Q: What sequence folds into this?
């Protein structure tokens, strides 16, 4: 009996990483970051595009922060695994737009995580000021 339970435990331990690795990242739903911002993403369409909304918790403005629309696309939506994606947010409370690119990962516990990089472009009064328009 002892060797049977040991073999079963070993078999479950060996199968667990495979089950997690076979999971597919799903961008649809509510996402929150470590700073308290959140976004909601719609389901992907057949072309891999999606829409949603972004509510930032961090902004350099005195204006009221509003929920802002986003549009994006996921690379190879039919592939399994950890896809890359990109989306833009048109801020409703500022004259700026942010472009995000990233990848969805699944950790060994099955938790989905989005790792992203972003560029924010704000409106400037003239071409001379373009050097300070992108962060």
A:
């Amino acid at each position: 009996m002892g060797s049977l339970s040991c073999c079963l435990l070993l078999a479950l331990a060996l199968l667990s990483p495979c089950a997690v690795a076979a999971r597919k990242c799903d961008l649809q739903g509510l996402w929150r970051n470590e700073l308290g911002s959140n976004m909601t993403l719609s389901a992907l369409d057949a072309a891999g595009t999606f829409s949603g909304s972004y509510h930032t918790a961090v902004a350099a403005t005195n204006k009221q922060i509003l929920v802002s629309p986003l549009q994006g696309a996921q690379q190879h939506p039919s592939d399994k695994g950890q896809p890359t994606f990109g989306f833009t947010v048109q801020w409703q409370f500022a004259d700026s737009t942010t472009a995000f690119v990233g990848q969805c990962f699944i950790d060994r516990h099955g938790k989905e995580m989005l790792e992203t990089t972003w560029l924010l472009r704000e409106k400037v009064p003239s071409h001379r000021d373009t050097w300070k328009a992108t962060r």
Observations:
- The beta strands are 29-32, 38-41, 49-55, 68-74, 84-90, 96-106, 112-122.
- The chain is about 15% helix and 40% strand.
- Residues 8 and 14 are 10 Å apart (CA to CA).
- The radius of gyration is 20 Å.
